[in-house]
Amino acid sequence: MGNVYTIFKRDVRSYFSSPIAYVVIGLFLAVTGIFFYLMLTSFLQYSYAAMMQRQNVPLNVNLMMIRPFLLNTCVIVLFMIPMITMRSFSEDKKSGTMELLLTSPLTNWQIILGKFFATYFLYVVMILVTFLFMIFLFIWGKPQLMPVLIGYLGLLLMGAALVALGNFISSLTENQIVAAVGTFAGTMFLWVIGFAADFAGKIFGPFFGYISIVQHFEDFSKGVFDTSHLVFYVSLTFLMLFCTYQSVESSKWRG
Questions:
Q1: How far is Cα 23 from Cα 122, in angstroms, rounded to an integer?
Q2: Is the Cα torsion angle 38, 40, 41, 46 positive or negative in sign?
Q3: Residues contacting residue 75 through CB under 8 Å, at least 6 positions apart
Q4: Secondary structure of the chain: what % helix, strand, coil (to 5)?
Q5: C-alpha span between 100 and 163 (Å, rounded)
Q6: 237 φ, ψ (degrees, to nearest 5)
Q7: Of 103, 118, 174, 197, which is most buried, counting CB atoms within 10 Å of its CB?
């Protein structure tokens, strides 16, 4: 684990010693902040209208405010992942550092896991920053805590799978733009395949629905923890890590 931590620390330092981490986190916070503001404004207007009309309508903050915010955050994440992972392997390949890593005493798995944890750490920081919005709701409202925590757990699980996917695609090329575009295409495929499930018939429909990465998040956004979704995200994460291992191993033999 010491070698994994060395790679992790090296990559994290490279992210936060450059504008990349701050730009990604700042942009994500700005976009999610806009959605949060719009949803909060709409919720307050609805509450005020119900109060003025003296309607005895139950106002559920989790259902009307937090769940839509988490679903929108889930979609925004799909666009941010390529920015996080595009340089994971591509930068080292372009600078020649990857050859030094592969000829060092480090094993392939140590390199892969170190880089995965580094990019995932940046993703976790990016997600947790948005919890500031939830704190605001807890100060001024009375949402249920457990559904919020389950929703954020879903974001973290989904992010692990997408970060692993991005690292795999980054390991295939030394061009960061190509890595970003490839990761974006991969994340979009895992999103839109869910829409195709409605038109794919009884045979392929359930399969397309199952591999849709966003559909697995819907229960998390409701505050429902289902182990089948956990198994999907963990399995996809390990599959992408294994594919990354094969990519790194093949590049070692080609080199």
A1: 12
A2: positive
A3: 191, 214
A4: 85, 0, 15
A5: 24
A6: -60, -50
A7: 118
What confidence tier does 172 reach under pLDDT thresholds 50, 70, 90?
very high
**229-233, Cβ contacts within 8 angstroms, sequence gap of 24 or more:** 229/154, 229/157, 230/157, 233/157, 233/158, 233/160, 233/161
Distance CA 27, CA 184 (A): 17
Lookup: tokens for 75: 């979609």
Reduced to 3 states, what is the DSSP secondary structure of residue 113?
Answer: helix
pTM of the model: 0.92
Q: What does the pLDDT look like over 12-32, one tens digit per residue?
A: 999 998 888 999 999 999 999
| Residue from 226, 192, 230, 220 nearest 66 by CA | 220
CA atoms within 13 A on the CB side of 123: 34
